[in-house]
Write a structure and sequence with these properties.
The complex is a heterodimer of chains A (330) and B (306). Chain A is α/β, with parallel strands linked by helices and 330 residues long. Helix content of chain A is 35%, strand content 22%. Chain A contains eleven helices and 14 strands. A seven-stranded mixed sheet of chain A has the order 3-2-4-5-7-6-12, with helices on both faces. In chain A, helix 4 links the parallel strand 4 and strand 5. Chain A starts with a strand and ends in a 20-residue tail after the last helix. Chain B is α/β, with parallel strands linked by helices and 306 residues long. Chain B has a five-stranded parallel sheet with strand order 1-2-3-7-6, sandwiched between helices. In chain B, strand 4 and strand 5 form a beta hairpin. In chain B, helix 4 packs across helix 11. The two termini of chain B are 19 Å apart. About 3% of the residues of chain B have low confidence. The chains are: A alpha/beta (330), B alpha/beta (306). Chains A and B meet through helix 3 and helix 4 of A and helix 7 and helix 8 of B.
């Protein structure tokens, strides 16, 4: 890791403003959400390309589609549930079905808006938006990837959804290169494959390093949830025979669900999932909620050790098939 | 057919304008009659569809495509073309028919209606048919998209105008009113919404399902310029189109009172025409009536020309 912690929203907003300097197609849509999404700098530099829609996310999503038909590249960022759930039909029809070049960014993903309660949490977005054919789902893992992902999503010709978090993030990547659909091999190991995505990855990396010497982890970090880097996950799963997915998302669906779909029918691989049980998360302190669901560094490390003790099929005659574990971090 | 804009630019004199106007209205009425006949041509290929609403909106579409819009076979992909959005996407039969009427779609394509994989799905798909600008059908989507198009045209420096046709039955969808506020706030005076008020929807009279009157007062309260017309009177539609925008800096709402199932023998103004599955006898009678309407309109064109 290098440098100090960086605010994901400010990083995102600055990246959009930087791309817009050289790309006049970029327009920003706000649903009374631009300033709090880090887009104040863009608004100041490009007032003509900053469009305010008020708190009207369905209308703004439709308008984004209309703007895209005119050859513009709309970037619309607001609190994640309001640009995924609230506007879902506009996302599906006007953006997805119409295959428009619209970029929708959900900030404060997961339960990072911890104290604001379940209305402001987004624990289904990977699945919900991933169900719309043709939509790319990004989850950049650190500030460098946020910068790279912004460039990549604007360069990509088609609809994109990106989830970013809230808490300041450490930079774990040296450069801000980003390739849509490509996993990063963060650690090499033979005992257990751990698959992480988005802002969880720095935490997962810390946990993996904390158990180094006890568990030899093969760590894949995903900046893209859809399309999944199937090749990388399959290759690692075949090496270790045992996969643990980690995400701040419901266990139903999500990254873990996608990995299960991928590995269903692959002999000799078991999958475990660490995530959020299918219920409304209470409001509270973010760190305490993470600890409750085992999604803090200590909880992730504990779960990796448990998984390693339980072992994969290679530890027991190479033929055991254990049911998928759907429990939270217990 | 010259456009309203070209007429204005040519500075047509008052007296010659009246005769010219009569001839043009007769021509547009003939066009509307042919367009209704084309709707029935599609029913000959597949005898089921949202016919009632398609037939109520014909004069609006004919006037738009033939009188107002910078659009035609040579402008289907022109970035500066005017955009037409059928927010009430279930009226697609009307749009398919008028696209054939203006030569964007070849008539034999109409005979594929109802076939699996046809370019004429039950609700329009911009990836299937030239001239379709949005995948509407789910209601309450056209106006927000239209706002984005009008904003986009302004940002790009295009002259494009945007026309959206809504049904009165879709007005309860809240997204329409999000868009109404957005359009007024952004002063989108290149955006015009026609509300096809045929007064009927699948469950019965719109006033009984969920009353939205006064529609005119609602749009006016949102800051739109509003006019009410007889939407089946092509001359009345043209009069409005010639005056757009009704007020500089404001979007325009045209509240068009129409007759559902217009031209269908025995089914005008009925809910039964909403999704119509005619018997062979009913379809035969409707075609006979439509052919007679075309003949009458053609005779009128000749009469005006004399």
């Amino acid at each position: 890791m290098s440098g100090g912690l960086q605010d994901p929203r400010k990083t995102f907003g600055a990246a959009v403003a930087a791309v817009a300097e050289s790309d006049p197609r970029v327009v920003v849509l706000s649903a009374d959400s631009g300033g709090s999404s880090g887009l104040g700098e863009f608004a100041a530099k490009h007032p003509d390309r900053y469009l305010e829609f008020g708190i009207a996310e369905h209308g703004a999503t439709g308008a984004a589609s209309g703007l895209a038909t005119m050859g513009l590249v709309p970037v619309f960022c607001a609190i994640a549930p309001f640009v995924t759930c609230r506007n879902f039909e506009a996302f599906r029809n006007d953006v997805g079905y119409m295959r428009q070049n619209v970029k929708i960014v959900g900030r404060n993903g997961g339960f990072t808006y911890a104290d604001l309660g379940a209305t402001h949490h987004s624990l289904e977005d990977y699945t919900l938006i991933g169900m719309i054919p043709g939509v790319v789902v990004l989850a950049p893992q650190d500030p460098a990837e946020i910068r790279g992902a912004v460039r990549a999503m604007i360069a990509h010709d088609g609809p994109v959804y990106m989830r970013i978090g809230n808490d300041p993030l450490p930079q774990i990547f040296e450069d801000d290169s980003f390739t849509i659909g490509e996993a990063r091999q963060l650690r090499h190991g033979g005992d257990l494959t751990v698959v992480s995505a988005g802002y969880m990855t720095p935490r997962v990396l810390e946990a993996v390093d904390a158990v180094a010497g006890e568990v030899d982890v093969d760590l894949l970090g995903l900046g893209t949830v859809v399309p999944l880097d199937e090749e990388a996950i399959l290759a690692s799963a075949r090496r270790t025979g045992h996969v643990l997915t980690v995400e701040e998302h419901y266990l139903r669906g999500g990254l873990g669900g996608a990995v299960c779909e991928l590995l269903a029918g692959v002999d000799g691989v078991i999958v475990e999932r660490l995530g959020v049980p299918h219920d409304y998360v209470p409001s509270g302190r973010y760190s305490e909620l993470c600890a409750r669901f085992g999604l803090d560094v200590a909880g992730i490390a504990r779960r990796i050790r448990q998984a390693a003790r339980r072992g994969g099929p290679r530890d027991e005659l190479g033929s055991r098939r254990t049911p998928i574990t759907a429990a939270a971090g217990d | 057919m010259i456009t309203a804009e070209e007429t204005r630019q040519a500075g047509t004199t008052e007296s010659s304008g009246v005769a010219h106007r009569d001839a043009e209205v007769a021509e547009l009425e003939l066009s509307a009659a042919r367009t209704r006949r084309r709707v029935l041509r599609m029913l000959q290929a597949n005898p089921a569809g949202h016919v009632g609403g398609a037939l109520s909106v014909i004069e609006i579409l004919v006037a738009l495509y033939r009188r107002a819009m910078r659009f035609g076979p040579d402008r289907v992909t022109d970035p500066q073309r005017d955009r037409f959005l059928l927010s009430a996407g279930h009226k697609a039969l009307a749009q398919y028919a008028v696209l054939a009427e203006v030569g964007v779609v070849d008539d034999p394509v109409l005979d594929t209606y109802g076939r699996t994989g046809s370019a004429l799905p039950g609700h329009p798909d911009l990836h299937k048919l030239p001239g379709i600008e949005a995948n509407t059908g789910a209601l309450g989507h056209g106006l927000p998209i239209g706002c984005g198009m009008a904003l986009g045209a302004r940002l790009r420096g295009y002259r494009s105008r945007v026309y959206v046709v809504l049904g009165d039955g879709e007005l309860p969808e809240g997204s329409n009113w999000e868009a109404a506020a957005i359009a007024a706030h952004h002063r989108l005076d290149t955006l015009t919404a026609f509300v096809d008020v045929n007064g009927l929807q699948i469950s019965g009279p719109t006033a009984q399902v969920l009353g939205m009157e006064s529609i005119a007062a609602k749009f006016a309260a949102f800051g739109w310029a509003v006019v009410e017309i007889d939407g089946n009177d092509v001359a009345a539609v043209c009069d409005v189109l010639d005056r757009l925008p009704l007020s500089a800096g404001r979007p325009t709402a045209v509240i068009a009172r129409t007759v559902k199932g217009k031209g269908l023998p025995g089914l005008e103004g009925t809910v039964a025409s909403h999704y119509w599955k005619p018997t062979p006898e009913q379809l035969h009678a409707a075609i006979a009536a439509a052919d007679a309407a075309v003949a009458r309109a053609a005779a009128r064109v000749q009469e005006v020309a004399r």
